[in-house]
Amino acid sequence: MRKVTIAFIVIGIIILIMSNIRVALPIIPSAVIPKVNEAINVTPGVRLVINDTNGLLLLTPVKGYSSLVDMIDRLSPILIFIGIIISMTLLVTMKNRRIDISDPLFFGIILMLIIAFIFALPIPTQVYLSDGSTTQSLLVGINAYSGFSSVMYLVSAILLVMSTWLYKEPEAIENLYPDIDQLMSMTVMLKSEEETEQPENNEENE
Questions:
Q1: Taking a C-beta distance cutoff of 8 angstroms, is the pair 123, 144 a contact?
Q2: Taking a C-beta distance cutoff of 8 angstroms, is the pair 128, 136 a contact?
């Protein structure tokens, strides 16, 4: 459990950093139309401004055209911070607790955490540029999905809490087994003592 919560905290910090900055990297810049100055919608939350002057390619991510996605992007640092606080609370309160790796819910949590981490990084995205007569493609890496990543991270942290609570019940049931074994052994001992005492009483009566 300790390693899982530490992984949650580290990945949460990385996602938090990436959600506060916009990174755009030209992966294949050779296809850019000379002296292009164009704004392209990458996602509803991000618009990419592409400038190519004197062979220098500049990519500037700006606000997109969806108010809902833009609001989620603005709230993403808060959502990630809440997820980190939840993970730190689990690290302090349940650091000695075991976690069932074979649990399908735990597998889903780890999968969601990996997806949240991947979507916080610059993802290769194909964009198309046109000067009216010709259209060329450009492959760029842009972290345009920080809002989606923050929501996935927060949901995975909440599910991790639920998973620890659900795993708490089997542990309580397992802790009852030693008590039941002790009770059964005591019952067997009492029965054996009664059986040994009965012949002795019969001999005394005779």
A1: yes
A2: yes
For the stretch 166-185, pLDDT in tens is 765 544 444 544 555 566 66
In a domain, 187, yes or no: no
Q: Which domain holds residue 70?
A: 2-175
7 is a domain residue = yes
Q: Over 90: is that where the pLDDT of 156 sits?
A: yes
Say whether pLDDT at 36 is over 80.
no
- Is residue 189 assigned to a domain? no
| pTM of the predicted structure, to 2 decimals | 0.71
Q: How many C-beta neighbours within 10 Å does residue 32 have?
A: 19
Question: Model confidence over 82-135: pLDDT tens digits?
Answer: 999 999 998 888 766 777 677 778 888 999 999 999 999 988 888 887 766 777
**Integer distance in angstroms from the first to the last C-alpha of the chain?**
67
Structural domain total, the chain: 1
- Confirm whether 49 is domain-assigned: yes
Q: How far is CA 76 from CA 6, 120, 134, in A?
A: 20, 11, 38
The CA–CA distances, whole Å, from 94 to 91, 156, 175 equal 6, 17, 17
What gap in Å lies between CA 97 and CA 77, rounded to an integer?
29
Q: How far is CA 61 from CA 39, 64, 203, in A?
A: 9, 9, 100
